[in-house]
Specification:
Blueprint: E1 2-4, E2 70-73, E3 80-83, H1 92-105, E4 107-110, H2 114-119, H3 121-129, E5 149-154, E6 183-190, E7 198-202, H4 203-208, H5 212-218, E8 222-226, H6 232-235, E9 246-250, E10 252-254, E11 261-263, E12 270-273, H7 278-294, E13 299-302, E14 309-313, E15 317-319, E16 328-333, E17 341-342
């Protein structure tokens, strides 16, 4: 499980206007430009999730989809960079293996995925549904007709909060949902020649660095995660298509497939630790946020190249991005997973 941060830039032809002249070619991904629907959506309802990686556990060779690939481990226990696999051509069995690989490595980058890009939004959503029910962002734009595809688009004039010394805030996507995301797919339709890297942090390794006594205490805790006033699009005056929610999750969660335990707090969405006084909660959370931010040996930095895709397990990774003063256009497919499973079996989440 990991946290991420990205900076991207669209090529000059990818301006908000997709018209062309004799000096400009049509933007290849004009059909994926942002559209903001004003249709209100009902609250999300619970559903039963079976992680596809579990089906690969009994496979005689659960990494056979990588037999002809070049695999570089970015760190010994976290993140891989892979060439030689066409994600668009994977069958369901190989997708299950892929889910298991992402669960075990936390973050996996796949290069040379032009075939996937060219398949279009209908293919993107079909791909995502293999890994879970697709989440629809409550306030951000999407390609017209495809609300399940979350778009990241900022032009050179977009403004970020200048009141802090950094624009990055480590986060796990939509941790405030009752059933937050699992395996997540993100790709840049354009990126700058330099910069725009994505930084991931392993919440599995972050937990392992702590003392056994402190981990035992953290396993007894649960935290409230909130979507009220915490989403960037909402803070910027965006239209909220679905009412924001708050939910209680364990501070330490267990992965349903690998059984690994991971921290599950993040600075953007975690509001408080339930049952503690405000000062107690703030001190513990701020310590954990500081640990996550400073633990460079638990992080992997992904450098983008054209036609690259990153898949990560949102259960154990957190992310954010800074701003380059340039256009940024990316697409994310975000399937939901199970309600976070407490590492401590006796922890009762619904009893606040």
């Amino acid at each position: 499980m990991s946290l991420t941060t990205t900076i991207t830039e669209v090529a000059p032809a990818a301006e908000k206007s997709t018209t062309t002249n004799k000096d400009k070619e049509p933007y290849r991904y004009a059909h994926l430009m942002p559209f903001l629907s004003k249709v209100k959506m009902p609250p999300l309802t619970p559903f039963t999730h079976v992680d596809p990686g579990s089906r690969a556990l009994n496979h005689p060779n659960p990494r056979s989809f990588l037999d002809k690939a070049e695999v570089i481990e970015l760190t010994p226990n976290f993140a891989s960079d892979i060439r030689g696999v066409n994600l668009a051509a994977l069958d369901n069995d190989a997708k299950d293996q892929l889910a298991l690989e992402v669960a075990r490595r936390g973050v996996v980058v796949f290069r040379d995925q032009q075939d996937f890009f060219d398949r279009g939004p209908e293919f993107y959503t079909t791909w995502g549904r293999h890994f879970g029910r697709l989440h629809i962002h409550p306030s951000s734009p999407h390609p017209e007709g495809y609300p399940e595809i979350h778009l990241v688009y900022k032009d050179a004039n977009s403004k970020f909060n200048s009141e802090t010394i950094t624009s990055t805030v480590w986060h796990a996507d939509f941790s405030f949902e009752l059933q937050p995301p699992g395996l997540t797919t993100f790709f840049l339709l354009s990126q700058p020649k330099t910069g725009g890297d994505t930084l991931y942090s392993s919440q599995v390794l972050n937990l392992k660095r702590l003392s056994p006594t402190f981990v035992a205490f953290l396993r007894t805790l649960k935290a409230e995660h909130t979507g009220i006033g915490t989403l960037r699009a909402s803070r910027g005056g965006g239209f909220e298509r679905r009412e924001p929610v708050e939910n209680i999750h364990p501070v330490v969660r267990r992965h349903p497939v690998t059984g690994e335990e991971a921290l599950y707090v993040n600075k953007q969405f975690t509001k408080r630790i339930v049952g503690l006084k405000r000062e107690e909660s703030e001190n513990i959370l701020n310590f954990l946020y500081d640990h996550i931010a400073k633990a460079g040996d638990n992080q992997a930095r992904i450098k983008w190249s054209p036609n690259s895709m990153v898949l990560w397990d949102n259960r154990s990774a957190i992310a954010d991005y800074g701003h380059l003063g340039a256009v940024r256009h990316g697409a994310r497919i975000t399937p939901q997973a199970e309600r976070p499973i407490p590492a401590l079996e006796s922890l009762v989440l619904d009893d606040q």
